[in-house]
Structure formats: C-alpha cells, structure tokens
Amino acid sequence: MDFDKVSAEEFGASLRGIGLNLLVRDVSAQISFLETVFGMKAFQPTADFAIVKYGDQVFQLHSDGTYHSNPLLSLLPENPPRGGGIEIRLYDTDPETACAKAEAAGGTVLQGPTDKPHGLRESYILCENGYAWVASRPL
Questions:
Q1: Of 6, 13, 36, the residue nearest 135 (C-alpha)
Q2: What's the predicted TM-score (pTM) here?
C-alpha cells in the first residue's frame, strides 16, 4: 500500500487485527520525536493526522481537536502521562541509541537501558504527550 497516496476510505478499510491510535496535542511535534528517536516514518502528515510506520507496523496519530465530539477526549488528563498503564514496545530499537536521542528530542528517560530477566535489554522513554515507549532488543 502506498501510504503517501492512500485515501482515508481505502486506508480505513485495510485495517485488521489490533490497531493503535494516539491522541496528541501537536501531531508535527510527535512526528519529529518519533522520527528522531526511533527512526519511524510519517505519511500524509497534517496538523490533525498522520499515518506512522515502524518496521512493518502502522499506527495513527490524531490531534486532540479531531476528537472534539468523541467522549474519549473528556477523559484525557491535561498533563501527561496520557498513556499511563500502557507500554508501546519497539522490539527493533536499540535502547542505548534511543536514550541518547530522547532527551535532546524533548523526551524523558524513565529507565535507562536495563537487562531484564525475560531476555530483553530495554529502556523506558516518555514523549512530551506522556506515552511510554519501550525500546528493546534481545540480550
């Protein structure tokens, strides 16, 4: 699928399984963070929306304003962490590299690279919207 040209209708009809849609205050700033820290790629970015690709996975960013009539918007906290209780795991991202880039890109390193008993080396990074991104690689 050509994410640069796909229509909203065609993209929506193609989605299967489980999806991820993050509400953010500033789509452009979130894209910059994701591209800089994790090497992601954004498609069709606007002030309100972007398709984001990480490896073979695709997810969406929406600005808060696009949810003006959605009941979910009223549940969002004014201050992060918006995604408290969820980890967005990035299994193909080097934790050391991500941490080195995160703070310069406006992120907060919650936990630096750490070897875990489940066989992964991980780091926990919060973006300015308060989502926890977990960069990890096998030991």
A1: 36
A2: 0.91
